[in-house]
Amino acid sequence: MESHQPCVLVLSGKSSVEKELAVSLKNSNTLKLPDYPDVSLFLHSEAQKPLFADTAAFKIDSYMNSLSTTRFGRFLLWSPRLPSTHDVVSQNFCELPIGAVCVADVQFKGRGRSKNVWESPEGCLLFSFTIQMEDGRVVPLVQYVGIPRLDVRIKWPNDLYLNGLKVGGILCTSTYKSKKFNVCSGIGLNVDNAKPSTCLNAVLQKLTSVAHQLQRENIIAAFFNKFEKLFDLFISQGFQPLEELYYNTWLHNGQRVIVQHKDEDQDEVVDNIVTIQGLTSSGFLQALGDDGQMCELHPDGNRYFMIFPISLLDIKV
After folding, report:
1. Which of 58, 13, 70 minimizes the C-alpha distance to 219?
2. Which regions of the chain are under pLDDT 50?
3. Residues 118-121: contacts with CB within 8 Å, 24+ apart?
4. Which alpha helices (DSSP H) does the chain contain, by range?
């Protein structure tokens, strides 16, 4: 889709409150995408039938019927094709209720870490939603709250792996306004595309003889139903109650890595061997060096660093 083509957003809500907000936003025409000025807004109740003619289109009614939250996911923006769901919620944060979600069937300028851009075809679950928090110390940890139940593993900081292959990722961004952190969380999950790597349904077919396929609508509804409970626990008690659940799903328990950094005095690259211990209270990696010193590893684009840029290499032991 080129920039001169219009973007279509369909607005819907779980209850009369969200539906009235959808009407208000459509009538005021306040939702914008700066790089795509031609945005067409429709209410779900009046959306043109051709939008839903594609059998692969997101089934809004099915999603709403499966949703049982009180806040998250109840206000929905859906589009058959968007540059980025993350841009929709981040650029319209103040116009949307907290917990609003934007879903796209196809995304052609999806955002990743280090400003990476992704194209995502049909068959992926692509959504971004809004969160608001007051304690900035725990904002980096929010991306770990929605932990999957299947054998999906977390590769720190925000990749999702299944059977050793990447099936999804998470992106959280935040801004600070009026003493609150406005957080936009985006999630991409490969549901149906078995090539070039793997997808959820391909693995599911190998695990069961039942010809059952996971549907995007049911996955995202189940996600919000669980996320809301975990998020409330996280806000009231911090990350500690979720630590065991998190560590049971991540890939790095006892992982040995080489931390490479440049020694400015010697003008050479120095290798330090460290063992990953877990997360710090701020959500960064905590590692123990062979010299007994603890260090904290931070992401820097697609690398990691302690005090200065480094790279990590797995050690096979």
Report:
1. 58
2. 1-3, 114, 144, 146-148, 301-317
3. 118/188, 120/188, 121/193
4. 16-28, 60-66, 85-91, 200-207, 216-237, 243-247
pLDDT digits (tens, 9 = 90+) for 79-130: 999 999 999 999 999 999 999 999 999 998 756 554 555 567 889 999 999 9
Give the 3-state secondary structure of residue 36: coil
DSSP assignment letter at 187: E
- Amino acid symbol at 16: S
How confident is the model at residue 302, as a pLDDT?
45
Instruction: Give the pTM.
Output: 0.84
* Predicted local confidence at residue 259, as pLDDT: 77
Angle CA 106–79–28, to nearest 5: 150
Domains and CATH numbers, the chain: 7-247 (3.30.930.10), 256-314 (no CATH)
Task: Determine the 3-state secondary structure of 31 from DSSP.
Answer: coil
Bridge partner list, 159: 155, 169
Q: Which one-letter amino acid corresponds to residue 281?
A: S
Using DSSP bridges, classify how beta strands 39-43 and 7-13 pair: parallel, antiparallel or unpaired: parallel
The C-alpha atoms of residue 287 and residue 300 are separated, in whole angstroms, by 16
| Rounded Cα distance, 129 and 111, in Å | 14
Q: Which of 75, 67, 66 is nearest to 98 (CA)?
A: 75
Q: Given this model, what pLDDT does residue 248 score?
A: 86
For residue 126, which of 203, 213, 53, 186 has the smallest C-alpha distance?
186
| Strand pairing report for 180-190 and 165-177 | antiparallel
Q: How far apart are CA 156 and CA 159, in angstroms?
A: 6
Residues found in the chain:
317
**What's the one-letter identity of residue 35?**
D
